[in-house]
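A further point concerns the way the authors explain their paired sequence and structure data. The central task, working out the structure tokens from the amino acid sequence alone, is never made concrete. I therefore recommend that a typical entry be quoted early in the introduction. An entry of this sort, consisting of the sequence and the corresponding backbone structure tokens, reads as follows:
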Amino acid sequence: MVVRPGMSGWGYALMTVSMVLFWALIILGVIALVRYLARGDRSGDQAAAPRATPEQVLAERFARGEIDEQDYLRRRDQLR
């Protein structure tokens, strides 16, 4: 084995540990970036979707059968 001046066993060990830490940080950074971008897409879809107006919510309830026609007409008139 050839021993070079200035590089001992500790030098090789430190170089190995630092290389493992370097690649671990790179991999964790990529994972964090992917998760951030995936989360941003979902929140962007919700923000871009327009909110339903009270009349639309009332019409949806009527369409689902939660309220009858008289109740729908009475509440719609109150909203207007």
